[in-house]
Amino acid sequence: MMEFLAELSSWEIYAIVCGLLGTAGVLLGAIARRKFAMAASLLPLIAIAMTTPVTERIVIPYLTQRYPVVFANKELPKKIDQQITLKKIDLTDRIYSYFYDLDLDDDWFDAPLVKSAQISDLCDFLLPKFDSGEASLANYIYQFKGKDYSFSVDSSDCS
């Protein structure tokens, strides 16, 4: 159920939270109406007004932490620069895989050279994931002219 919620667009998440809070407000208002006459109309409005803070401070942070890949893929494809587009991120068995498309006119691409040039930044990003046990390996797969070029980074690359 929660992964289904994480896959929805932001406005759909807000709508579901609003519906749930509104329903809770109506039910609580009906129960509290016996003691406070205004409760039946006031509590649903208060509950609906809480939609934005509850969604932004509780629901979305929870879903982002629990399903980081789902949220990361919502923003893809994403141009990294004029020649590189991040197409997809996958997480399987603690192995992150990043899939890129290259739009280049020549055959200069060299995966080991790219790895050595980027290893410091990659390790800054990946080391917390390795240390926490969230990831054991990260694969970077570049597709260029119908061929795949790849390299991997693990914790030993970052020591």
Summarize the structure.
This protein has helices at 2-7, 10-32, 39-49, 51-66, 68-74, 111-132; strands at residues 78-79, 84-92, 95-102, 137-144, 147-154. It has 159 residues and is α+β, with helices and mostly antiparallel strands.
Task: Provide structural commentary.
- The longest helix is centred in the first third of the chain and has 23 residues, at 10-32.
- The mean pLDDT is 90.
- Strand 3, helix 6 and strand 4 (137-144) form a beta-alpha-beta unit.
- It contains 6 helices and 5 strands; from the N terminus they run H-H-H-H-H-E-E-E-H-E-E.
- Helix content is 53%, strand content 22%.
- The two termini are 39 Å apart.
- With 159 residues, the chain is of the alpha+beta class.
- It folds into 2 domains: 2-67, no CATH class; 76-158, GMP Synthetase, Chain A, domain 3 (2-Layer Sandwich), CATH 3.30.300.250.
Q: Give the helices and strands as they follow along the chain.
A: HHHHHEEEHEE
CATH architecture assignment of the largest domain: 2-Layer Sandwich
Unreliable residue stretches: none
Total domains = 2
Largest sheet: 5 strands, mixed
Shape: elongated
Using the coordinates shown, work out and report the CATH topology of the largest domain. GMP Synthetase, Chain A, domain 3
What Rg, in angstroms, do the CA atoms define?
Answer: 23 Å
Helical segment count? 6
State the separation between the terminal residues, measured CA to CA. 39 Å
> Into which percent range does the helicity of residues fall?
40-55%
CATH class of the largest domain equals Alpha Beta
Q: How are the strands ordered across the major sheet?
A: 1-2-3-4-5
Average of pLDDT: 90
- Work out the strand percent: 15-25%
Structural class label: alpha+beta
Give a count of the beta strands, DSSP E runs of length 2 or more. 5
